[in-house]
Amino acid sequence: MPVTVSDYYHSLESRIGYRLLLGNTRHFGYYDPETIWPFPLGAAMRRMEEHLYKTLGLKEDALVLDAGAGNGGVSIYMANKGLRMEAVELVDTHVENARASVRLQHMQKRVSISQGTYEDLSAFGDNTFDGAYTMETLVHAGEPDQAMREFYRVLKPGGVIVHVEYEHDMDDRHVGRKALAKVNEYSHMPAFEQFTLGTIRSRLEKTGFEGLEVQDLSLNIAPMMRFFFLLAYIPYLIVRLFGLEAYFTNTMAAVELWYYRDDIRYLMIKARKPSNTQSQADEPRRRLPNTG
Q: What b/e sequence results for 7-24 when a residue is b if at least 16 CB atoms lie within 10 Å of its CB, and e otherwise?
């Protein structure tokens, strides 16, 4: 049973599922809410990345932190749009794969991959980045408030943060709350447990961010969620019959999240570090470590 985020991503189900269905990308796609046929999935995921790029609203050559970069696909997309990327990823195999993808795309001068956690960004100086984002990764944080403080510290005054994350409204739904707790335990998403509606916004404001903008994209990911539900439903019944929920986390999530979709929100939340923030460092450290 997965007990850490690395265990979850190293599980056989995750490795096979992410590779076969999503091409090793780890986020939802963006659709018109009326869409019935969700294919190709890759095109929808590129649309979500484009939506994130436009929401960031940064100029060419801006320096951006990808916090929880997975196999590097989103960073490479952003680099192809003209941004300079520093990508931080915890899982060792993801770091290796991301570096290989960067080399394959000849993007070494635009994308740097390092191993670490966004709850400790001490490798980067104060006021370093023009922008930063998480894409379905802040939910894995054990200390999301610490992560937000670190994002605030490393962003320049006026810099933007965008969180593409889940929140829920299930504290009064005993059965649904219990199902969500199991999904969060097995997929190691402790922050999602904490993220009731409005939590990310309020914590960003408490950290010092301003100019909050919240986009609810729940209907835009529904076509892909529905596909995952249909694909997983029969295996889900078998998994439940034999008590194997802990070993088929994504199967459980695909069905349970669809069941309780009305109580779960998929949000793109943008905030800005105040422009009048005093510098905490004489010179920002802009590092581009060796990508191997």
A: ebbebebbeebbeeebeb
Question: Residue for token digits 């943008």?
Answer: 270
Q: Are 61 and 130 in contact (CB under 8 A)?
A: no
Residues contacting 76, CB < 8 A, separation 6+: 85, 101, 102, 105, 107, 111
Given a cut of 80, whether residue 140 has pLDDT beyond it is yes
Cα dihedral 137→143→148→153 (10° resolution): -120
The closest of 100, 106, 92, 52 to 72, measured between CA atoms, is 100
In angstroms, the Cα distances linking 283 to 48, 158, 206, 215, 278 are: 34, 16, 26, 34, 13
Task: Indicate the residue type of 3.
Answer: V
Euclidean distance between CA atoms 47 and 242, whole angstroms: 38
Give the contacts of 60 (CB within 8 A, at least 6 positions apart).
82, 83
32 Cβ partners below 8 Å, 6+ apart? Answer: 220
Strand positions, DSSP E, 96-154: 111-115, 129-135
pTM to 2 decimals?
Answer: 0.91
| pLDDT tens figures, 157-187 | 999 999 999 999 987 777 788 888 888 898 8
Nearest to 77 by CA among 1, 139, 135: 135
Closest CA to 2 of 247, 251, 252: 247
Q: Which residue in this structure is represented by tokens 């916004």?
A: 201
Residue entry with tokens 């780890």: 26
